[in-house]
């Protein structure tokens, strides 16, 4: 029972961890605006942590960005306007998911290109492997010379004598 409670507490701690990043003084009174702020914060990269959203980060800069997002929403900005404002101020690196544009085309195409290249490489490797197997089988199926047949016959007879004796 004690192990179960410890495990339950650990799970609750891990699940509630990201929610602890947003301090109570940051939360907006309007639940609709707060929901928009949380959704936007989940899309924005913490410039300090770099692999976390500002919604998940405890860094002071992430807190400043969360407050800025909420201020812009209270001022009447749309979600797109808030994102555009932050991108103009911090660059596209602030976005956890980069926009699809000409200058990010390589980034978006890298995954599918790597997948296709991997599939082609596996196909070529399998084809070469089957070719080598065919060549070995063809070489093994070649007719033995008369001397080779005599030697094989002698080896087999010797093995049979050892097994019987």
Describe the structure.
This protein has 165 residues and is mainly α. Helix content is 67%, strand content 0%. The protein has helices spanning 2-16, 31-43, 60-74, 79-90, 105-140, 146-164. The radius of gyration is 33 Å and the shape is elongated.
Features:
165 residues, mainly alpha
- Derived from helix and strand composition plus strand pairing, the structural class reads mainly alpha
Instruction: Return the string of H and E elements.
Output: HHHHHH
Largest pleated sheet = none
Give the CA-CA distance, first to last residue. 68 Å
Poorly predicted sequence stretches spanning 5 or more consecutive residues: none
Percentage beta strand: under 5%
Morphology: elongated
Give average pLDDT, whole number: 81
Number of strands: 0
- What's the total helix number? 6
Amount of helix: 55-70%
Kindly provide the radius of gyration, computed on alpha-carbon positions and rounded to a whole number of angstroms.
Answer: 33 Å
Structure summarized in a few sentences:
With 165 residues, the protein is mostly helical. The protein has helices spanning 2-16, 31-43, 60-74, 79-90, 105-140, 146-164.
What is the element layout, followed by pairings?
Blueprint lengths: L1 H15 L14 H13 L16 H15 L4 H12 L14 H36 L5 H19 L1
């Amino acid at each position: 029972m004690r192990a179960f409670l410890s495990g339950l507490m650990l799970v609750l701690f891990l699940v509630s961890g990201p929610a602890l990043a947003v301090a109570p003084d940051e939360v907006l009174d309007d639940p609709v605006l707060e929901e928009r702020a949380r959704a936007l914060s989940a899309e924005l990269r913490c410039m300090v942590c770099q692999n976390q959203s500002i919604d998940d980060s405890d860094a002071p800069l992430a807190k400043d960005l969360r407050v800025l997002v909420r201020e812009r929403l209270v001022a009447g900005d749309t979600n797109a306007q808030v994102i555009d404002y932050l991108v103009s101020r911090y660059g596209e690196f602030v976005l956890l998911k980069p926009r699809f544009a000409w200058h990010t085309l390589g980034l978006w195409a890298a995954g599918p290109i790597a997948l296709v290249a991997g599939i082609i490489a596996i196909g070529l490797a399998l084809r070469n492997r089957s070719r080598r197997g065919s060549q070995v089988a063809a070489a093994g199926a070649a007719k033995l010379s008369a001397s080779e047949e005599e030697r094989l016959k002698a080896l087999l007879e010797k093995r049979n004598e050892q097994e019987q004796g």
